[in-house]
Amino acid sequence: MKQRPMRLFVAVLAAALMLPQAIAGETVAVRAGRIYPVSDAHPWVIENGTMLLRDGKIIAVGADVAVPAGARVIELPDATIMPGLVLASNGLAGMHLGEESVAAGYRAEDAFDRYADFRTTLASGITTAHLSPGWHRLMSGQGAVVKLAGPSNARVLAADTDLTINLGPAIYNTPRIQELLVPPSPDRDVEPSRAQRPGSRVTRFLALREAIAEALNDDGGEADLHRDALRDAWLSRQTIRVQAQERADIIGAASFLASQERSGYIVGGQQAAELAGRLSDAGLPLVYTIDASFAAPGGDIGSAVDPLLPDLSDLAELRGLQLALGLPANARVTDFRLAAAMAQRGGLSERQALRAVTIEPASILGVDDRVGSLDAGKDADFIVLHGAPLETNAHIALVFVNGKLAYHAPESNAIVVKAGTIWLGPNNWLRDGSVLIEDGRIVDVGRRVQRPPHAQVINAGADAFVTPGFIDAFGHLGLRGDNGATPSDVNLARVIGAPDEPEHRVARAGVTTVMMAPYRFTGTGSRFTAVKTAGQARRDRVVRETAAMAFDVRNIDAALVAGRLKGRLDAGKKYLETWQKYEKELAEWLARKEAGELTETKPKVVEETAEEEAEVDPITGTWDATLTSEQIPEPANAKIALKLDGNKIEGQVVEPPSPIEHKIVGELNGTTLKGTIEIETGGAGVPEWEAEIDREDHIVGKISMGGFLEADIEMTRTDKGPVDLKVVTRRRRTQGEDGRPLPPKVDETLEPIKAILEHKIPAVVAVSTPKQIEAVLNLIVDEWELPLVLLDAQGARLHLERLREKGVGVIVPTQVVRRENDAWYNQSADLSRGGVAVAFQSNAGDGARTLPTVGLYAVEQGLSAEQALAALTIDAARMYLLDDRIGAIAPGCDGDLLIFSGHPFDADSAIQRVIINGQEVPR
Amino acid sequence: MNLIRLHSVVAIIAAALLGVPAFAEPPAKVALTGGRIISVVGEEIASGTVLIEHGRITAVGTDVEIPFDAMEVDCTGKVLLPGMIDPHSSRGLDITNENLAVAAFLDVYDAIDPSRLYFEEALREGVTSIHVMYGNNTVIAGVGRVVHPIGLSPDEMTQRTDTALKLSTTPRRGYDRMRQMAELRETFLDLDHYLERLAERKYEESLEEEEEEIAVGPAEARNLGRELIQDEDYDDQHANLVRLRRGDLDAWIYCGNATDVGPAIELANDQGMLDTTVLVLGAEAHKAVREIRRAGRPVVLAPQLTYRERDPFTNELSETFIPGLFHDAGVPFALQPNAGGSLAERYLNYQAAVCVRNGIPRQAALEAITIAPARMIGMEDRVGSIETGKQANIVIFSGDPLDFNSWVEQVYISGILAYDRGKDHRLQELLELEAGEDNGAADDGATDENGGGE
Q1: Strands A456-459 and A485-486
Q2: What's the pLDDT tens digit per position in A800-847?
Q3: With helix as H, strand as E and coil as C, how does A778-826 read?
Q4: Residue A298 in 3-state DSSP?
Q5: Distance separating alpha carbons of residues A416 and A396, to the nearest angstrom
Q6: Nearest by Cα to A643 from A624, A619, A609
Q7: Closest by alpha carbon to A498, among A545, A441, A540?
Q8: Per-residue pLDDT tens over the stretch A448-476
Q9: C-alpha–C-alpha distance, residues B50 and B35, integer Å
Q10: Residue A110 and residue B313: Cβ atoms within 8 Å?
Q11: N or C: which terminus of chain A has fewer CB atoms within 10 Å of its end residue's CB?
Q12: Distances in Å between the alpha carbon of A458 and those of A125, A415, A468?
């Protein structure tokens, strides 16, 4: 099977998105890194837990839940799962616009839009909300509990859950009631408008008692919806919800409820919190409303308490108090999770805070049989997030309601990797750090990095060790056994396409970049291409098309090495100079153009002529021609070169230079010439000509082309010298139409040499003997001062000093430890100890997979683990002058990361995840 | 522009003084011959005759014998369509809604203004039946009626009275959903209460007449009294609500949004009037199409046929073609002209053509402007198709009615030639004006005085 690297998150999302179509009766297993069931029946956190869902309900939760055969499995190893948040207090329903002060007949359920798109609210994790009929009347009506997603007929979880009583200044502003006569009649008087209670705090409980008494005493008078509703609610002992902010009101409410022997709960803020002890004694739960105006604080506070940071320590200590968290009517509901997170600062423990936004509000609202925790039998309403449930910058990725995906975060190109150790370089470890990768590049590295909206978060754990992706400094991955040498003008990048199975295996082993090289090099050099082992297409995979130019001098006598290489360098230098000249001219021309100094000039043409001896004959030579016709306004003059070979004539217009390719051909018979002008006319036929040598060095004739052109021609020979028609073809413009200098011709064989001379890429030279190394060092490093990498270089230890001073790296042979002079010798350790940078090679195709093990063996054989890591990463990147792209974990570099369970060269460490260009390579 | 305004003012004065085109006694027999007949209920007839006798269609077909005394009208090359039906319009009223939220005692009869240019336009556009209803800004508004767009008084125009009572589950202005629903519930609660009191009173009255003492409990008394109630006993405020419950009046319930559909169906169920309920939908209400299908009730679709919505996250615009959803769900639907839309959308046949363009079969689209609304207004035995026995409401188009190059040439209402394009002076003036001034503003002149309609 062909595996294409695909972002895990997308895969997860795709799997999750299929859930809405879940077949009835189908079992779905969700596996997650951490599950917070918020249930007494389970541990607080289940690591690597499984949750089974069927028909929108949870059927099992636990660490070792058996997944039934045939169940669909969704793997979310990085994610945390927790119950959907239950928002017990908010302003979602608005308030009713009725005028009655006591009106139990208003139902918050009616205000709920069962078809609305609540995704912006779901995005903050809220799946269930209480709806209040309003905060503006003494008895504003009856509340409801709803879900924010699902089919319209299933969204209302519970209607008429409570009778809502409000206490506080807002309720005293009661409108007068005017009864209208409908239809108007002259027989009946219009009654004066009627004032309503309570007009002030004095009558608030009196008004309630009156209303209740009136409702219970059905006198059979006028029909009254609100009176009937109050009677029904009161007789069915409906829960009383008291929304009050002030101390006196809360105390009054507690005694009112006690006197009426009713159960209920208080919704209030700071002053309610201060009365927590009293509420606890009275057995009244509290929905504590937190100010969540984080988005727009502003304004003075004017009280001792910071509303954004209330002191909840009293609440935390009162175990007997049932506590839920909610929001005031005017708060943004999307900040609810953050408000709950902040409640921990006020003194709540994580457990208290999390319970207070899930199971406790569900219990207070009477819907804990359906929502609020992840228990078998409850609705499958849960949140999938990255981070701890109440971590400030945790990210909610998916929200499920009734087992169906109700919200998914927009796709993001950002990924944050958190780990116990991040390897920044030899002996430079970042502890408890994070790396942010965005659009394939590393953007930020540090103890805490920013998290863009909807970024995927990989929390690798405290033991995890993150390194840059490994580099195979010399490999053949992707050549598929084509072991020939490639000429110096051929780019290996052209064989690269989408990665296949071998590339995938190499990538999974941790090798993220291969310096792709042919098996053998040609005498004029061969090119390397730096290529990633994963990516969708060539575009994503190629790091640098021509990453190095390599020469092999292993089989050349040391004395001849310099000469062989110098020839190429000289040619390259000459080539470079033509380009430098052009660039200089172009710069001057652009400067002049900028300054407006340029006037229209004719393009310059360089004639590169070659002398050639030839016999003098009546035709051969240069002729001045004059063309006259009625069809052209004035006679045209031209210089024509003609050549006679036997009786065949060949020729060309020399001046003015013809913009199109053409050839004059013909035959000479005595003094008569006849022929055509071969020219591409697009099917219009070719011009024909006929002429006569009327005297020596003088020709007259006609040119005709179909019916279009009739012209007389007269020619006089000006030069009898031999003409070489090839001269004309070698004419080359050096200027564009506007006088701009034109670039020299690109010579692909010399382009890489030019890049070396410009210090853009290194020269890689395969050497074996110390003498060869010396010759190469003398020429390339000392004489030419060019970047150099030595390949194999078995005698390198004899030049340790020079290599270190000149910063020449060595790609050590595949055989890390070899026998030399009857002794086992680890070249990498030796060079490294001497301060020379080394890199490892695979010299193989998918054998690059073994590279990390080669490094491990080198360590076992004496190389320091840190140096080995550098050899696989930053040192190899530096040799190829690619350290701004690969081999390092630094802002600007490619997002190539390896996550190990420990130090890569510890025996018990294993590679766990591979990220290439910011995308995880799937298993 | 001034000239156009002046023109329209003159036109209105002329209309007010002279009345809309007066019509004479219908000729006893008319034969429309040679035209293509789209009867809507059967196969199209490529070239046939419709025989009209005393305002009714007496024969349709290819071999209809034309009586010697019939006036023959040659319709060769023309297309005959049943007169179109505007299923729900407040544009003929001088006020669309009263200030009272609950006003079941009202009848649109009192508000119909025959001089409204709307009626003249309706005729010009080929609409022969208009279901005049109160607007949507209400809790319970009054009773509607069906009129045709000719006549000098509401009485003359009326085709059918007491069609339906208008209700709304979408909050009226100044209301929210809680208050809207509370008032609806309160109204019917009050009705129950009223009926109980009325029954008790009737029983007591009957005892008084017979000079007997009350011998039964209140519940039994109410039962006995209920038998005694006559229609005239109901007071104005409750009479129409009683008729609504009994099914004598249909319930046309406005649902502006999808979430209003559930309460509307629940209300209709609770009051035992679901079988006589028609839902008048706003554009967003199409989201409740499954709920509506389950309820099995027909709908009047919003004038705006395409619903556009932006995704809150991606800001992507999505479009839904509303009639397509209802057609696919098998819900009977009627189309409305879009008075607030483009000039073209004011034509019912254009609305039908848009449906065809969006994949609805031609037959279904034609039904949605003829026989489907006829069924909803309880007049399928009289209008909505070209069939023997039906009222002769026929529109003669110059070409296919769904081709927008076609003109309405003539309109027959009950066999009377009610409209003739050749004699439509206002249209001709308008066309001349437009041709003369060559600007696009000319249509303002004809429709300036519509009156704000819902």
Answers
A1: unpaired
A2: 899 999 999 999 988 888 777 777 788 888 899 889 999 999 998 889
A3: HHHHHHCCCCEEEEECCCHHHHHHHHHHHCCEEECCCCCEEEECCEEEE
A4: coil
A5: 14
A6: A619
A7: A540
A8: 888 887 788 888 889 999 999 999 999 99
A9: 9
A10: no
A11: N
A12: 20, 7, 16
Separation of alpha carbons B32 and B50, rounded Å: 5
- Is B262 in Cβ contact with A153 (below 8 Å)? yes
Q: Do A105 and B287 touch (CB under 8 A)?
A: no
Inter-chain contact B182–A103, Cβ cutoff 8 Å? yes
- Are the beta carbons of B93 and B108 closer than 8 angstroms? yes
Most distant CA pair in chain A, distance: 141
Q: Give chain A positions within 8 Å (CB) of B178.
A: 93, 96-98, 106-108, 110-111, 133, 141
Q: How confident is the model at residue A798 (pLDDT cuts 50, 70, 90)?
A: confident
CB contacts, 8 Å: B219 with chain A: none
**Number of neighbouring beta carbons within 10 Å of residue B366:** 27
Q: Which two tokens stand for residue A461?
A: 């754990």
Q: What is chain B's Cα-based Rg?
A: 24
Token pair in block for residue B293: 């299908």
Quick check: B182 and A108 CB within 8 A?
no
Q: Is B175 on the interface with A (CB under 8 A)?
A: yes
Q: Which value, in Å, is the radius of gyration of the alpha carbons in chain A?
A: 44
Residue A102 DSSP class: B
Find, in chain A, the residue whose alpha carbon is nearest to that of B314.
Answer: A410
For the record, the structure tokens of A649 come out as 């004539």
Residues from chain A contacting residue B194 (CB–CB below 8 Å): 223
The structure tokens listed for A628 are 């006259």
Q: Which residue from A98, A119, A152 is facing B179, i.e. has the nearest CB?
A: A98
Structure tokens at A822: 């009857």
What single letter denotes the amino acid at residue A253?
A
| Other Cβ atoms within 10 Å of A560 Cβ, number | 12
ipTM for this prediction:
0.86
φ/ψ region of A918 (left if φ > 0, alpha if ψ in -120 to 50, else beta) reads left
State the pTM of this model: 0.75
Provide φ and ψ at A528, rounded to 5°. Answer: -110, 155
Question: Exposed e or buried b for every residue in A534-556, given b needs 16+ CB within 10 A?
Answer: bbeeeebbbbbbbbbbbbbbbeb
In this complex, do A107 and B181 lie within 8 Å of one another by their Cβ atoms? yes
Quote the pLDDT of residue A339: 86
User: Which of A95, A112, A223 is closest, CB to CB, to B190?
Assistant: A223
Euclidean distance between CA atoms B22 and A674, whole angstroms: 96
* Helix-helix angle B322-329:B348-357, to 10 degrees: 70
For residue A103, the chain B residue with the least C-alpha distance is B182
Q: Between the CA of residue B13 and those of A785, B8, B112, what are the distances in Å? A: 101, 9, 18
CB contact under 8 A, B313 and A410: yes
- Tell me if residue B180 falls in helix, strand or coil: helix
How many residues does the structure list for chain A? 923
At a CB cut-off of 8 Å and minimum separation 6, what does A834 contact? A797, A800, A801, A803, A804
B164-168/B140-143 β-pairing? antiparallel
Nearest-CA neighbor of A342 among A395, A295, A391?
A391
A-chain residues near B262 (CB < 8 A):
114, 152-153
A410: preceding bond cis by omega (within 30 degrees): no
Ramachandran sector of residue B210 (left: φ over 0; alpha: ψ -120 to 50; beta: rest): alpha
Picking from A164, A128, A170, the residue whose alpha carbon sits closest to that of residue A147 is: A128
pLDDT tens, position by position, A47-66:
999 999 999 999 999 999 99
HSE at residue A877, side-chain half, CA atoms within 13 A, is 26
Instruction: Write out the H or E segment, with its range, that includes residue B268.
Output: helix B261-270
Distances (CA, A) of A419 to A140, A446, A824, B358: 53, 11, 39, 56
Token pair recorded at residue B34: 């040679």
DSSP annotation of A190 reads P
